[in-house]
Design a protein that fits this description.
Elements: E1 2-5, H1 7-22, H2 26-45, E2 51-52, E3 64-68, E4 71-78, E5 81-89
Parallel strand pairs: 1-5
Antiparallel strand pairs: 2-3, 3-4, 4-5
Helix pairs in contact: 1-2
């Protein structure tokens, strides 16, 4: 299996890094980014590691999630690929996750 990031999830990851950079903690931003990447790469070998994301179950697309620190990594399995669709800060209102 391969792990691919959607444009949206790449944007979210950049925004997380930029936030930490703006508050003067770029090392923290890099640490978060690395943590998310490491967790996402675990999905290559264990694609069903994450639980089903209940907030997105109404879409019927099989969204799942794993957690890296305070970030939820939302993903879907399609054929032989794992698509990271969102990186969501769990401190935010979960309603913000809805499409």
């Amino acid at each position: 299996m391969i792990v691919l990031y959607t444009n949206w999830s790449k944007k979210q990851l950049r925004e997380i890094y930029n936030y930490y950079k703006e508050i003067g903690a770029p090392k923290k931003g890099r640490k978060v980014r690395l943590s998310v990447h490491k967790k996402a790469l675990q999905l290559k070998d264990f694609p069903f590691l994450g639980r089903e994301e209940e907030m997105l179950s109404s879409l019927g697309q099989g969204h799942r999630y794993v957690v890296a620190g305070q970030y939820k990594i939302i993903y879907r399995i399609i054929d032989e690929a794992i698509y990271i669709t969102d990186i969501f800060d769990t401190r935010r209102n979960p309603e913000g996750m809805m499409p």
